[in-house]
Structure formats: C-alpha cells, structure tokens
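SEQUENCE WITH STRUCTURE:
===
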Amino acid sequence: MTFFTRFLAGLMAAVALSAAAAVPDEVARLQGAWEQVKYQVPAAQQEAGFERLTEQARQVAAQHPNSADVLIWYAIIESSYAGAKGGLGALSHVKNAKKNLEQAITLDSNALSGSAYTSLGSLYYQVPGWPIGFGDDKKALENLRRGLAINPDGIDPNFFYGDYLLRKGDVDGAERALRKALQAPARPGRKLADEGRRGEIGKLLEQIAAKRK
C-alpha cells in the first residue's frame, strides 16, 4: 500500500467517524427543537414552528440518509407539522413520515428504543382510513405492541397505547397503560418532554374519570 493510499484510507476513516459522531448531535438538536415547539410555543404558532423545523430535519436527513435515529426524528417532526396544519394538505406530510419510519425500521428496528414502531402505530390510528388516508387500526395495534415489546416501561409507548385503547373504548386498558406511563423512569436530557407528556397523560386520565361519573 502506497503512502497516498494509506493517507486516503485514513482520511476516509476519519470522515466516517466524524459523520457518525455528528449524527447524535444532530438528533439531539432536532429533538430539543421539537420539544420547545411542542411544549413551549402557543398552539396558534406551532404550525409555523413545525414547518421550519421540518425543513431543517429534511436537510439533516439528506446528509444522513442511513441514520435510523435521524429518520425517526424527521418523521416525528413532520407528523407533528401535519397535526398542527390539519386538513387534506397534511396528508402528504404524514405519508412522508410513514415512509421514513418504515425506512428507519429497515435500517434498525431497535433504534431509539423502538420509537419507529410507536410513532408508526400512532400514525395508523390517527390518520383517516381509505380512501382518504392509510389509517388502519389493526396495523396501529400491531406496531404499538412492537414498540412496547422493545420498550415496555417507556413513557411514550405506554402513552400512545393508552391513547389508542381509550379511542377504541377500552377504558380500563387505557387507564392501566396511562398509569404505567406515569411510572416511567425519567429520560436523561428529556425533562421538558417528560413534563409535557405527563401533562397529556393527566388530561387523558381526566377524560377517563369523567366517563366513569
């Protein structure tokens, strides 16, 4: 091996390591920005915030097309934008989010503690069914359970599972899942997200209490 070949090989290895190191940083930035828009920005301003963040996530995903973590957060951000936007104009965004989650599962189904399955399941039960969208309760339940199998004690998989069960009329099952979500261990660096999610869980538990009166 010539000096030039060894130098080139070393350079490429250094670039690869730098790129790998950059991915967690990019994911952390996307994650933090999403939490701020989701839980600190007034509802009326969230559409614009998520629109800007979706473009940022698209650019990061273009730079790291084989990172399951990046694709998951791109999908979470774009589906949040779709939710804030609403209407038929949001369908293209949830379809793109679905595609990215499926790609993330292909790359690494365990990435981010199975978050791709949980996020995909939440899309399946919140998006309208055929002929408007791809909503499917059977696929929702299948993916939510896969997410729970990977992260059985996590706040998000139990929250979305509880939300799904409540929407389907299983009040007792929903309450069990939601109370388990409240017992989830705190996530390092995710204080804002944990507090926001617990607030959402509290609202669902209030709905359950009202149903039982």
